[in-house]
Amino acid sequence: MMKSCLVAALFACALFAAGTARAAEAYSEACMKPLPPGSPDPAVRDVHFHTTGGGGLITISACIVSAHANILQGVAANIGIFSKDGVLINYAGQSYTNVNPLANPSGDGPKLVLLYGVSIQIDDKYGQDFAPNTVVALTSVSCTKPAPDCAPAAPVSATLLLPVQVDQDLGTKSAK
Description:
With 176 residues, the chain is mostly beta strands. The chain has two helices and seven strands, in the order ααβββββββ. Strands 4-3-6-7-1-2-5 form a seven-stranded mixed β-sheet. The relative contact order is 0.25.
């Protein structure tokens, strides 16, 4: 348990450092694409499952994007982990408050990009053979006025079916 907490903390720090150090340069190309007209806003993009190579710890990364130029007063995303046969193995969620828009967004790209990261343990019996898609439940409350005079808009919820990229980039488990 302690190992998974440490890995999650380090991953979150790396995401935060990358986002603050290089602003829009740190975000993936998928995160920076314009939101198509009529699509959910905010939206979730670029979902990755980072694995340990054998089971156990899964770290999930993604980006939450919005075309709105005001602060998101609150945003929460729950991402499901499904086996190849469609069985829900587990899910992980994270919520954020007072998410600021980008300082210098591109003209046609998102005005707000939030790097999402969370880790969760799954039973080793499931291995790392996941479904190619996931279901993301996203809820947000945006501000209708710029900071600091946030007047909250009505909450917005969306359930999204999104592709998942599985990356075995956390190393492998060592023998005990």
